[in-house]
Amino acid sequence: MALWGGRFINESHKLFKKFNTSLSFDHVLAKEDIIASIAWSQALMKSNILTKEEQKTIESALLVLLKEVQDNTQSILTSNSEDIHSWVESNLINKIGKLGKKLHTGRSRNDQITTDLKLWCRKKIYILLETIIELQKNFILSAESNYNVIMPGYTHLQRAQPITFAYWCLAYVEMLKRDVSRLKDVLKRLNISPLGSGALSGTAWKINREELALSMGFKSASNNALDSVSDRDYIIELLSTAAISMMHLSRFSEDLIFFNSGEANFIELSDAITSGSSLMPQKKNPDALELIRGKCGRVYGSLNSILVILKSLPLSYNKDMQEDKEGLFDSIKTWNNCLNIAILVLKNVKIKHKSCRKAAEEGYSNATEIADYLVKKGLTFREAHNISGQLVLHAINENKSLNNLTLSTFQTYSNLIEEDIYKNITLESCLEKRLSQGGVAPFQVYQEIVKAKKRLNIL
Ligand code: ARG
């Protein structure tokens, strides 16, 4: 019989039963449901609703159940319980009989489910934080070992100004730093306990909710039961953090897919992370990266889904909210997998120094230097920009790079240009001049690497 069978005369239709059950996906909350149930039994004991003996019996049985679940989570799926809460309760009753029926005193599945979900999210956030930090470490190591590799930096996917591979790596470290800070922020607001909120208006039993919250590692108990059982903001925050981070991973993938293309030819991805074509023998495809890019879609989908589920949903709990889980579980798994694959990619990429440098030399990416040079000689930037543009056009027509123009050619465009122009427009000079904070100058990049290594404890 269902937990709520008393008021009913007839059985549920089997189609409805199947439609209504959440066990096929919420079974992953078994551990959290058991831990929160133990905490609840202790609170009941402290309020003299359970005797010490009764609580001990309940707790021991729940711990046995926990062990059984850890050994074989899949076994839950063979049951026909409606959800994980019913499953835990009926298994407890199977183990200790009538006493198990006392556990639900003062509690509702409405405060139970959101407590379980918060505990689950918290556990996953700790794992994600570690994975993101690991990815940052790999970017730093990659930056360090490719410290001197000069390549073109792009805007509009046009070669713009020279950068280094190390500098490109550090850009992603910054993005990941923001992802970490967003995750920590989610944790701050999430870590408030809803348990003891009852169905929607609080519990009629004298439960010390603050003590109960602390016993589960929450910072405090929530203030308003109506809000607590309705609140899924933390899922929205977590999924938007996931969506933003997946966007970062997707841009990383796209950059590398382009760097790996025959057209750019800046990197080579190892056999370990690429696959072939069933038809074209020459192909070595960047599947790992394409999959990260593609999986972004399902995470955005889950974020959109939870936003739509909650929009206009009246207070407090509605069964619509059961739809919060599958997208959340899938997205967190997907995000963590993609972070791990990004780590694997970084370990399996070879940078082709020569072709990176050649591309940087070829793309007129030092045209800004000519303009800056002329500004130093007294022109306004706008005039200097115009002359540099004319020189680029000249070089394009002659199919040359700017460094290969003769001094007399330079001087037909401006007599302010002297022999020192050549040393001003080398790739090295372009880089070294950008010493201001956040710039690409190798010294600046070196300082950033040292700082990051210290911050991440890389020895
Ligand atoms: N399976 C439900 C969910 O995921 C648990 C809460 C059920 N509460 C209720 N009043 N039916 O949302």
TrEMBL record:
Q: Which residues form the Fumarate lyase N-terminal domain?
A: 6-301
InterPro entries for this protein: Arg_succ_lyase_C, Argininosuccinate_lyase, Fumarase/histidase_N, Fumarate_lyase_CS, Fumarate_lyase_fam, Fumarate_lyase_N, L-Aspartase-like
PROSITE patterns given for it?
Answer: FUMARATE_LYASES (PS00163)
* This protein's UniProt keywords: Amino-acid biosynthesis, Arginine biosynthesis, Cytoplasm, Lyase
CDD domains, from UniProt?
Argininosuccinate_lyase
The pathway that the record names for this protein is: Amino-acid biosynthesis; L-arginine biosynthesis; L-arginine from L-ornithine and carbamoyl phosphate: step 3/3
CC per GO annotation: cytosol
What the record says about family reads: In the N-terminal section; belongs to the lyase 1 family. Argininosuccinate lyase subfamily.
Q: What is this protein called?
A: Argininosuccinate lyase
Lineage in the entry? Bacteria, Pseudomonadati, Pseudomonadota, Gammaproteobacteria, Enterobacterales
Write the gene name.
Answer: argh
